[in-house]
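Sequence in, structure out. Go.
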Amino acid sequence: MTKTGKLELTWVGKNEIKRYEPRILVEDFGKSNITIDNQTSNMLIHGDNLLALKALEHDFAGKIKCIYIDPPYNIATANPHYDDNLENSLWLNLMKPRLELLWKLLSDDGLLAVQIDDEQFARLFLLMDEICTQKNMKTICVKMSEPTGVKMASIKKAKSIPKFKEFIILAKKDGVKNLDIEYIPKEKWDNEYKLLINGVNRDDLEVLKQIMEGDDYSEETIKLADSIASKIKISSVNDIIKGVSKKEEIDSIKYENSWRIARDVAVTGNVKDLANQKRNMVNGESFIVVTPQKKKYLMKKDYNAESAQPRCKLLFADQYLTVHPGDLWTDIKTTGLDNEGIVDFPKSKKPEKLIRRIIQMSTNKSDFVLDSFLGSGTTAAVAHKMGRKWIGIELGDHAYTHCKVRLDKVIEGEQSGISKIVNWKGGGGYRFYELAPSLLEKHDTLPIYTINKNYSFEMLCEAICKLEGFKYDPQREMHGKSSETRFIHIASEMVTGEYIKQLTKELGENDSVLIYGTKIQSSLRLPDNLEIKRIPKDLLKKFDFESEIR
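Output:
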């Protein structure tokens, strides 16, 4: 039996090769919001996301720590902002090049998260398998609806099955691991946790917990743990719920303070003996013991030493009353989001808490977060509130009417969504960019391309630098460089032997130059370190220049 071929998804147009032109981005200073932070790295881009991603590729490849996208689900919903009724092949042709670019932009330890419903889940998973490989992927099922409302009447009448969930496909280049997973509260508070830890702050307790769970048993580390433990004062959890009568409010306060609420449990044998030996040697209300088996325990001093099983070991609620969310997320409220972000986006707005979980599990402050289907601006808003840098791309007019409006409100300090959870007070900024038109445009009557009349010479230079993979950095006669010795120059006049002589007279021995021009003298004799290309002829060899992507 011949073992050839491979299992893959096929569709009309899959193997068509298109050479998309990397466009430049033009800042709209009137729409940028940099009053508070004029050094911001945040970018809000209006334009086709495929071309915008190509525009970002040169500067951001391998630098984005978290990418979340919520692309059109291809389900013919009544969403006026998206073409969401594409034939399957068209939808796959839309997604494939975008996912390939996103994968290039993702850092080696970054996370890609793509949300989808069951209409296109199977096709999307197979497509991502080709790009990311299945071993680097995992799927989350997230509850997105409740069994209530008008939809349930028609479901009952038809005796059908309602849809309550969507999927988030996760992918990392080294496999879905090394994530900072946010543990979630158990459904019910355990009232055995009734001791309140005072005298130390959250950071101190976090250090203490890490020492207790870690493998460092050095004398210095144990002294640090004992030092923190000696500051602890123990009281009743009732101290923080005085005057509160509603059970849900009481439980909410307890969960919010679970990091400093504990219970005491019984110990026996050598742990009891170690505690009895050390308790009279310390002045504080708690202390650390280390067993011969290299186990570390936090003990309270106030216990009955005569008891066979004294209750003296302290366990913290946040370590025992929370659980891993796993691959089934049902704890995030996904309905009633009308007021989040102060913009209206029916049936398509994702909850800020959901985006927060994805960003939190994969990034640290100042890491870059990207969303190329920005929609109502949720991802950028959440990243902004969490202190991350962000890039948001949106094609529709709601880049102006939704994204910009929402982000301006975030900067002002709006308090919806996760604002209270992260103690958001406002601040920051962003720069607003328009995707430039194509560098070359077809002549109205002749079968030729000419430089777009909307381009200034500076825009032309920046665009050619981007097309050739050079960093645009005008310095004297040169317009950019790709290394310390490789430069590019775009000529605004006829390129002659004398022109080249003047241009290259200050070049170093190992320097080389690429020259682009529209008018070039024929039969020029060039040294080995010089290359000349023509506009538009040599540009047309590299890319397809179209006015827009469909």
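Check: The first strand starts at residue 25 and ends at 27. The domain at 25-181+326-435 is CATH 3.40.50.150 (Rossmann fold).
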